[in-house]
Design brief:
By secondary structure, this protein is α/β, with parallel strands linked by helices. It is built from 4 helices and 10 strands; from the N terminus they run H-H-E-E-E-E-E-E-E-E-E-H-H-E. The chain has an 8-stranded mixed β-sheet.
């Protein structure tokens, strides 16, 4: 019998994907496939979030208001910081060419889970179609973290190969799993936490959009 205890997150994801392949190949199991596989991946993501919180707890305990976000455009990195200490760092894709990510000091106040996507009135999007919350082709994926409303935000991407490059139209793209952890962490430390059942619903009812306003907005800096 397989045990998750002491198993790395990467290995757990591999087991989840192997399980998914097995379920696809057995017609009787197809009805169970989606729910069970998503639940496994959700638990794995939650484990990553717990580890993140554990690493950060000592720093935050000193000054819970010191949390801030910093995006370094030249490094293509997003940092979660407490004072001068880096709690976590992530690869991101930044704006390209004539659509750079704007530099400056901002405040994160709003987080949208399971967002819809409406193509902007821009030449590059003229042939694009609106995408419903949770749609496979929705480029926002699970969550949008606004830092310069209404046009600029952090969001997940299906094009994870673009991370570490200048590839977006101004927003900051992240691995969807990382975007989940960052958004949840900012909610916890921005005065608007939610319990496990709330996040379970976000992950399992992807057609439902949920908007969260932080009671204590988080400062964010974008620099080059």
């Amino acid at each position: 019998m397989f045990s998750w205890i002491g198993t790395s997150r990467t290995a757990l994801l591999e087991h989840a994907l192997l399980f998914d392949g097995y379920m696809q190949s057995h017609s009787r199991a197809k009805g169970l496939r989606r729910g069970v596989t998503v639940a496994m991946v959700g638990l794995i993501a939650a484990g990553g979030t717990a580890a993140f919180h554990h690493r950060a707890s000592a720093e935050v305990a000193r000054d819970p208001t010191s949390i801030r976000v910093e995006a370094d455009l030249s490094e293509r990195k997003l940092y979660i910081k407490s004072g001068d200490s880096v709690l976590e760092s992530y690869d991101v894709a930044v704006g390209k060419g004539s659509k750079p990510t704007p530099q400056g000091n901002y405040t994160i106040r709003k987080i949208v889970w399971n967002p819809a996507w409406i193509p902007p009135d821009q030449p590059w999007a003229k042939d694009k179609q609106p995408q419903a919350p949770g749609a496979k082709a929705n480029p926002m994926k699970l969550v949008k973290i606004f830092f310069h409303e209404p046009d600029y935000y952090i969001h997940g991407t299906g094009d994870v190969e673009s991370l570490g490059s200048a590839a977006s139209h101004g927003c900051l793209r992240m691995d969807p799993d990382d975007a989940y952890r960052v958004a949840r962490y900012l909610m916890d430390h921005g005065g608007s936490p939610r319990d496990e059942s709330w996040f379970w619903r976000v992950l399992h009812f992807r057609s439902e959009t949920k908007t969260v306003y932080l009671d204590t907005p988080i400062p964010m800096t974008v620099n080059d």
